Amino acid sequence: MRRTALLTSATLLVALLPALAAQAADDPAPVPVDRFEGEVPFADPPEGGLFTWGSDTDDPPTLRLAARDDAPEGDKVLSGSYDISGYGGFTHDFAFAEPAHDWSAHQGIRFWWEGQDNGKKIAFELKDGGANGEASELWTTSFTDDFSGWKQIEIPFTDFAYRTDYQPVGGIDHVLGLTETWGYAVTLPVGAPGQFAMDGVELYGKADQSRRASVLTDAPVYPVKEGGTATVEVTLATTGSAPVEEPVTVAYETPADPGKDYVPVSGTLTFPAGTASGTTRTIQVRTLKDKTAESAENIPLKLTVTGAKAPDETPQIVIDAHGLPYLNTKLPIKARVADLLSRMSLAEKAGQMTQAERGAVGTGGDIATYALGSLLSGGGSTPTPNTPEAWAKMIDSFQLRAQATRFQIPLIYGVDAVHGHNNLVGATVMPHNIGLGATRDPQLAQRTGAVTAAEVRATGIPWDFAPCLCVTRDERWGRSYESFGEDPALVDSMETVIQGLQGAANGRDLKDDDKVLATAKHFVGDGGTAYGSSTTGTYTIDQGVTTVTRQQLEAIHLAPYETAVDRGVGTVMPSYSSLDVIGDGQGPVKMHARADMINGVLKGRMGFDGFVISDWDGINQIPGDYTSDIRTSVNAGVDMVMAPYAYKDFRTGLVAEAEAGRVSETRIDDAVSRILTQKFKLGLFEKPYADTSGAAKIGSAEHRAVARQAAAESQVLLKNAGGVLPLKKSQKVYVAGSNADDIGNQTGGWTVTWQGASGDIVPGTTILEGLRDAGGDVTYSKDAAAPTTGYDVGVVVVGETPYAEGVGDVGNGHDLELSAADKAAVDKVCAAMKCAVLIVSGRPQLIGDRLGAIDALVASWLPGTEGTGVADVLYGRRPFTGQLPVTWPKSEAQLPINVGDATYDPQFPYGWGLTTLTTVPAGGATTLKALAVAAAVAEKAGADEAGRALVTKARLIVQQRPVTAASAKPFAEADHLLLTGRYGKAVESLLAAYRAT
Predict the structure, then answer these.
(1) Contact 201/109 with Cβ under 8 angstroms?
(2) If you ran DSSP here, which 8-state letter would residue 709 be given?
(3) How far apart are CA 340 and CA 338, in angstroms?
(4) Catalytic: 805?
(5) Sign of torsion, CA 424 426 428 433?
(6) pLDDT (tens digit per residue) in 35-59
(7) How many CA atoms lie within 13 Å of 568's alpha carbon, on the beta-carbon side?
(8) Element housing 491 (H / E)
(9) For the chain, what is the total number of helices (H) and then of strands (E)?
(10) What angle, rounded to 10 degrees, do the helices at 701-714 and 442-457 form?
(11) What's this model's pTM, rounded to 2 decimal places?
């Protein structure tokens, strides 16, 4: 949460608490928390005090201590104004350097609030446990402002629930102990300007035993095979683990009229006074076996607790569905799908078409209530702690909830693992797609996909929202690094990653514990949006309009999806962007609404038989109200809708549209059939829970070796005057620059959080650490402030800081220039010694004005967690072999600039990439002519490996000469010809480039 600092410590409170709390043990007097007379100043967290926060710079409210004649207590109140569009409020953090406050002896908290009678809810939170107010658990409740004037709001501590959608550091113990309380927070209502006033925050009442003791069950749902016995563990837990002072009883009973399915039980469990916290008793419910095939049956186990807080939910014993054809693994998947579909209600079908965010469903009760088909983790939406074990446990807990539904249809859980399992701390983080495109190594791309799949599936996740098959045509786009490159032929060649993720094209490997369902995104044209066409917030290009002829659409943007469908990709995600096909008379239409593209081209012409998943709230961008958004998107061919926090509205709306006949039963049955087919292929009906047998390999040396190779092969050597690279271990090397020792910058966006972050955010090796590990004589000075004399060569590592999506669009607070500090480091080091400059970025950076002073220049892209791979090529352990996946411009005014353009005069052309440790063939034009003949022969014979090798030799010859406006165009086109298998023509084009220089 971004927070605007305003406040300081509460030393008066610390002094008052012990004295006042001791006044009357039996009936304690109210204990003041805040009187707002000046004792709670405004300062920066986590020092202690009041501070405001909000979703952007306009959302934090104002705060002031105002003198009021009508103050409920004293002379002053806390008052303020607000106008919040996203979220905003204020917090009182208690001083972190002093002991936390013990509120466990009290019944609750109360305060005076000046009502505006606006009918809006105001959230009130407690900060409990942890190291300080900014590293604690949040427990939340709310009250409604439905009154005028001052009113004392009393909130018993039993009203607070654990907040599931946001935690500063996540769970400490998920128990509101109140023995270590660090403060409170107020979230103000959004949507309209308002005023507020608050006074006299205090603790009241005496805690009874039900505040300090709880009865818990070990699970909310207990699936059991017909004829088996369910065992429910009932545990007594107390604050501070103290024994209970009074007896606790738990009366239990199942419904008394079970028919032939189970034996009813009833009785009482007793925990006598003095029982230790953690003591467990068991209740057993025996089910009966008959010969009837049945759907699942729920048996509620009613618990009546005296002397402690009862469980939040009634435990459910579930007799598993049995004997029905869809459960028969010997039947073909098509028959199983048809049988299950025939049994489902409209509401159950709509639930399968609904995907919610994990943070929105809390502990998961709504999964069964709404028969949800899917959950996802958005970028940065992780369990606590963020470990493989916690991921598996979380997802298993959600899958358990699905077992309480009638047909026990398992969830399919999805995550954006776009360069490794990037939400998981400790996972192997690969180079982003732009770097993989630079490798020109389809086999390596497949291996990176396989590592990603293995690490994702080992945490219980069977579905990956990757790969992005966008063809980036303008590097001002904040998502350009998610693309393999600007040439659809390059994107096509790297789609081997789909097999790495999914295995065989027919889906037979999807049930394996190291494979996941892949997603081709974003259909179609997201990489072609025009600069300035976006209407999303402050974005300039992302989610904008792609305007193309039908021929351009087919050749550039649709082509990669033909390949993906042929490779058996299981899901496709439409783009946020709009498509405007010149001459079709429709104008710009949001892709989530384009039935001609989704139903017509993707499912019809291409024969895609997987399912289409919307992007995050993507249907909301369709013009019209939410009901029409549902109707339009589903009728256009969207099978499952990602409605992260609006899942109830989507499911309800879809049912209503179907009942009204505006969405046909046939369309819904088609969508659900597609979804169920993939769930059966994944083996989720037989094995819904996490198979963690591969968890030991997450972040393993074996997996990191693949990432290291990918990092090495992704490095593109643009210039190497005087053979500065590779470095020699005998040289004294001076390293500088903002990205030399920053693994957050090195991994980029979509790393642990959506936008990524600078700093030490994940385990791995920075480029500086890689250089040191290589055994070189290395000195580091980030800003080049250290003396520069006495060194043989400098390595300056500069570039971008992380961003994702439209947040990173050029013009939205970003440009293609190096920072002032980076420019200064380059200038200082390169003036003092021979220098190599590495640009760690997701897109080209404008370097032309400094190019003459730089001896060696490397496009380092975003290499991931394995900086050792970068050091491998810098020190010559591996040769430089990478090639530009996009054109490197001379100026921003040249953008968009791409291979095949009629006018083409870049700094470095598409496909450019010098090599090291390789002998360049001699003979110039004569050798090129001979290579052209040999390449044509190889092409005719279908000898692809030989043909590619011949083109590579020709490229190395041409790169011995400088780039010119005349040579750049045929040079770039040669790489496109190579990727399309026209080896002879590729060498001929290189010969033309050679002659043009």
Answers:
(1) yes
(2) H
(3) 6
(4) yes
(5) positive
(6) 999 888 888 776 789 999 987 778 8
(7) 17
(8) helix 488-493
(9) 25, 39
(10) 140
(11) 0.88
Cis geometry, peptide bond prior to residue 522 (ω within 30 degrees of 0): yes
3-state helix, strand, coil in the chain (%, to 5): 30, 25, 45
* Contacts for 592 with CB less than 8 Å, ≥ 6 apart: 574, 576, 614, 615, 618, 619, 621, 622, 632, 633, 636, 638
Task: Using the predicted structure, report yes or no on whether residue 368 has a pLDDT greater than 60.
Answer: yes
Three-point CA angle 366, 368, 372, nearest 5°: 75
pLDDT given at position 170: 64
Catalytic residue of the set 128, 615, 800, 973 = 615
Quote the CA–CA distance of 792 and 733 in Å, as a whole number: 6
Give catalytic status of residue 615 as yes or no.
Answer: yes
Give, for 221, the enclosing helix (H) or strand (E).
strand 221-224
- What are phi and psi for residue 2, nearest 5 degrees? -75, 135
Say how many residues make up the chain: 997
397 Rama sector, left if φ>0, alpha if ψ -120 to 50, beta otherwise: alpha
Higher-pLDDT residue of 12, 86? 86
Cα dihedral 167, 173, 176, 178 sign = negative
Segment 570-589 mean pLDDT = 98
Two tokens at 973?
């086109």
The answer for 861, left when phi > 0, alpha when psi is -120 to 50, beta otherwise, is left
Active-site residue identified among 348, 441, 455, 805: 805
How far is it, in rounded angstroms, from Cα 676 to Cα 349?
A: 10
| Residue-level pLDDT at 27 | 65
Q: Say how far residue 484 (Cα) sits from the centre of its chain.
A: 20
Percent of the chain with pLDDT over 90: 88
Amino acid at 438: A
Residue type, 668: I
- pLDDT digits 0-9 by tens, 950-984: 999 999 999 999 999 999 999 999 999 999 999 99
